[in-house]
Design the sequence.
């Protein structure tokens, strides 16, 4: 996913810093492919915002007692304002959120980590159970967890050059992978496999997982830290994805960078997923799975095609280039196609699905 982000960044080098995914795709691959790509970009961004809004509403409901619908409305009303204000406002609040996440993660996950039971982690109680077959159905969700590509143009514009944006992408994906691994080890090392059943029955919602963890965590302070980390993670993801979708739609609809223009863009970015969350709430993991299938288009296939086309242009082999040559382009496209296929096979019930 790092390489595909670099491929997208490579294709941007022919354009000014304000260019967007939409503009570059239309110019290099044509209008028809761009329309299809736009649909998948907005679908994924919208469904991720929808999932974050729904989950945050449920978590806030558990904490405050407010209805999940009202909590979701307040969540959007307050935190989407950072995106409406500016990219710099998002950067500053992200620094605060990441600092808070690090503190809560260290305290909460360290509390879980020191209590990791290797027997629980390796599921020693069920030596005959095989988990490798579930990896195929997991890929769309995992891909979505690294689906930052709609923000690449924003990062390039913010840093002012490809080199700095390249290291931002690398650092971000490495940090995310490290935290994901620590989180998975801590969760699976404390929560026995059979206790995932109620979480899966509720669609994999974050609040359901937190409830199950409460039953195995002896310390209330650790439990609160885990809850705080989960909320901060959802909030930072909401703001980050919101910024990417906001910039994408601003370019697509040609909204002016004025208060009126940014307000219009805010409305088309945040109101549709909020309304869908209020009317049709369902499982977090289900939503992420759908997003993963669509994300293969603009997170793998389109970036690879853009890089391939970019290298045929004048100066295409100069300046920043993603590594791996044409073989890497083919590998990224194949990975995207297989990931989408696995999602549809999972939906059809052909792939094995873990039920707890």
Sequence:
């Amino acid at each position: 996913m790092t390489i595909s982000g670099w491929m997208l960044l490579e294709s941007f080098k022919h354009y000014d810093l304000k260019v967007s995914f939409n503009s570059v795709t239309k110019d290099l691959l044509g209008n028809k492919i761009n329309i299809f790509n736009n649909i998948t970009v907005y679908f994924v961004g919208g469904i991720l915002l929808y999932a974050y809004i729904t989950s945050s509403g449920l978590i806030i409901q558990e904490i405050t007692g407010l209805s999940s619908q009202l909590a979701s409305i307040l969540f959007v009303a307050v935190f989407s304002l950072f995106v409406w204000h500016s990219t710099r406002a998002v950067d500053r609040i992200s620094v605060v959120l990441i600092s808070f996440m690090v503190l809560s993660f260290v305290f909460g996950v360290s509390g879980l980590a020191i209590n990791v039971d290797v027997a629980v982690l390796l599921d020693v109680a069920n030596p005959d159970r095989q988990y490798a077959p579930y990896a195929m159905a997991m890929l769309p969700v995992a891909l979505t967890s690294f689906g930052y590509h709609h923000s690449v143009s924003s990062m390039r514009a913010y840093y002012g050059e490809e080199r700095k944006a390249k290291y931002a992408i690398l650092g971000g994906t490495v940090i995310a992978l490290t935290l994901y691994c620590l989180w998975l080890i801590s969760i699976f090392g404390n929560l026995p496999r059979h206790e995932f059943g109620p979480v899966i029955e509720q669609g994999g919602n974050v609040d359901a997982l937190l409830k199950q963890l409460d039953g195995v965590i002896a310390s209330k302070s650790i439990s609160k830290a885990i809850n705080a980390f989960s909320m901060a993670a959802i909030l930072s993801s909401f703001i980050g994805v919101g910024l990417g979708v906001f910039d994408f739609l601003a370019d697509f609809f040609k909204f002016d960078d004025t208060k009126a223009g940014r307000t219009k863009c805010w409305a088309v970015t945040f109101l549709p997923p909020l309304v869908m969350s209020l009317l049709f709430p369902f499982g977090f993991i289900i939503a992420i799975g759908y997003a993963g299938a669509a994300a293969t288009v603009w997170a793998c296939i389109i970036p690879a095609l853009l890089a391939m086309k970019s290298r045929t242009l004048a100066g295409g082999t100069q300046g920043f280039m993603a590594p791996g040559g044409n073989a890497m382009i083919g590998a990224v496209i194949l990975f995207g196609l297989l990931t989408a296929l696995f999602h549809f096979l999972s939906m059809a019930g052909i792939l094995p699905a873990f039920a707890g």
The chain has one domain: 3-347. The chain has a mean pLDDT of 86.
